[in-house]
Amino acid sequence: MPEGTLCNKQHVNTEEQLQALLADKSGKTYYEEMKSLDVDQDKLAKTLAATFKSRLKTWLSICAHCGLCADSCFLYLANKRDPKQVPSYKIQSTLGEIVKRKGRVDTPFMIHCMDVAWSQCTCCNRCGMYCPFGIDMGVMFGYLRGLCYSQGFVPWELKIGSGMHRIYRAQMDITTEDWVDTCEWMAEENEEEWPGLEIPIDKENADIMYTVNAREPKHYPEDLAEAAILFHLAGENWTVPSEGWEETSLAMFAGDWEACRMQVESVYDAMKRLNPKRMVVTECGHAYRATVIEGPYWAGLKNGQTPVPSLHYIEWLAEALRTGKIKIDPAKKIKEPVTYQDSCNYIRNAGLADTAREIMSYIAEDFREMQPCREHNFCCGGGGGFNGLGRYRPERNVGLKVKRDQILATGAKLVISPCHNCWDAIRDLEEVYKIGIRWSFLKPIIIGMAIVPDHMKPAEE
Amino acid sequence: MYEFLTGPVLWLTFAVFFIGLAARFVWYVRGLDWKLDRVAYRQWPKYGIRGALRSIGFWLLPWGTRSWQVKPVFTLVFFAFHIGLLVTPIFLLGHNLLLDERWGFALPTLPAGVASFFTVMVMVAGLFLVIRRIALPEVRILTTWYDYLVLIIAVAPFATGYLAANHIGDYGFWLNIHIVTGIIWIVAIPLTKLSHFLMFFLTRAQIGMDYGIKRGGMKSKGMAW
Ligand code: HEM
Ligand code: SF4
Ligand code: SF4
Ligand code: SF4
């Protein structure tokens, strides 16, 4: 049973494995090795027997082959209605085949499954809303990703990503020390402008435990500062945990369910340790999906709920604006046409469509909906890990066209996007197609228009 | 022949129908797994029931979901086909006379003109579905021989019934063929993809509970199907 040194069925649990993978530029050797990675057919058959139960079985067998799901998929639309992009076809020709052949599939077929699972589906779950039987190809592709991962057929970046979660409990190599340092640095950095500003670490019994996306401390530490400023303005009693602060899950994109569990348990442990009243997650879609919506199930929590009630950042912000904890200066509201990117992960799959509209009603004078919008919105084009996979970059860029056209049709030049993945996709969309738009998270926009009470301003020189 | 088919064979047919569907129901529900499916089915009955009912209810209305709304022609044909498929056999005068004779009860019946119209409607709609399978690339790529077989099984009793009722050709012959295709129709419901007769309600309830309990149902008015 040959396995590569880089591409194999092993989990990445050590620094050493991780460094070896990282040293392989763009995964050249990794993908080369994959071509001769054997499929463990018995294990695949066993996994199917244990996990492929009536919900998925019925979905695959009951599909009427009616094609109603075709138009629902942005990748079908972006690829000029290529029939090979019909959601039902994509899943029947991959997972459907594995099931039909009871796991007796070969290496080229598994590589094909990997390519389809990661480059022809972002797990946005839109097709499931358009199927009369509620057949959710996004859920099934998630399952297929799990099968692929367990056999070692996973894109290089995601093998690394899930390894990061296993080793650092974060999607990037950030240690507890790095994180704490960043928090302290950001607090100091902004103290002068915002007297009394703090980023309290490991404070017990706070009202809010705030958690983030590792990209923020690593690449955009000012986001952390902005969160602190807004909590400070709102007078919140808040804290961040020194451990268990990371919400994202490349492991979810990878289908590495064990790493998913390890990651969310680190956050749940922080909840138990610090006993906050609520948790607030930064402006990230898949992070919220992973830790708040799916996480409790990975961790085996029977009621499907996080140990303490959890809010997406937009829920906290809507509440702060509604209750007047943060007041907007009417003169500073957004005057130009502005649109909002509904993230699949917290709008379609977590019910926050109204919350987003509430915020827009407080801050924008000319808010323009994309069509379709809310739960029916199209994926930005970069979800499910698609943004970060070099092997599929051209396919991703094609996929961005649907969002490009949706944005253009609104006439707005500013897109509010409180989701890291969507934000990236829209940034890349501008880079590739140059349509002259700007994009932003909510935090900087709110800071720019909030009324700052005199006692919070720096003392006059 | 007629006596035999509408006697013991019909009994057996209905036995297969009910036992088959009951078995499907039990198998499906028992195969649901809160951890694998990642839905806390039992923990939140209020959200679960609300989600399931919304998910079924909106889909039973031709204008109830965006998916139906954006495909008006298909939706019209689909509903015409299914209303014809379900209403005609149950409320047909001839079937109820037989029912009364054999089992001593009968349901209200359709006027002959309406029944005849529904029968033609099923056949025309069935033809439309076949043409659609051939004409649209996104449907063609999905279609297998099994889909045609299921369509033929579904429409056959209507075609043969129409021939018999209108005395086109040999009445006795077509009547017997009608009964045979009718029996296949009933037996095929639990045994083939036509089991969607029941499974539609179960899969819709499942996805409804998924959205109702886990994916947003607790923080919104419910999924906007
Ligand atoms: C309450 C009962 C039923 C419901 C809710 C129902 C629902 C559905 C749905 C949702 C579809 C698939 C989607 C589509 O093609 O757009 C479908 C297709 C179909 N149904 Fe039913 N159905 C029911 C009963 C029946 C019965 C009793 C028959 C015939 C024995 C039947 C025959 C068919 C056929 C042949 C198709 C495939 C149509 C095609 O080729 O596109 N259905 N049904
Ligand atoms: S809409 Fe549903 S039933 Fe129709 S082809 Fe797609 S998955 Fe199958
Ligand atoms: S989940 Fe989204 S990307 Fe995947 S097949 Fe369905 S609509 Fe397409
Ligand atoms: S990146 Fe945004 S729009 Fe795309 S799948 Fe994720 S949440 Fe949806």
**Oligomer kind:** heterodimer
| Mean pLDDT score of chain B | 96
Q: Radius of gyration of chain B over alpha carbons?
A: 20 Å
Question: Could you name the ranges of chain B where pLDDT drops below 50 across 5 or more consecutive residues?
Answer: none
Number of strands of chain A: 8
- Tell me the series of helices and strands of chain B, N- to C-terminal: HHHHHHHHHHH
Q: Given the structure, what is the number of helices of chain A?
A: 24
End-to-end distance of chain A: 74 Å
Task: Please give the order of strands in the largest beta sheet of chain A.
Answer: 2-1-3-4
CATH domain class of chain B: Mainly Alpha
**How would you classify the helix and strand content of chain A by structural class?**
alpha/beta
State Rg of chain A.
22 Å
Give the total of domains of chain B: 1
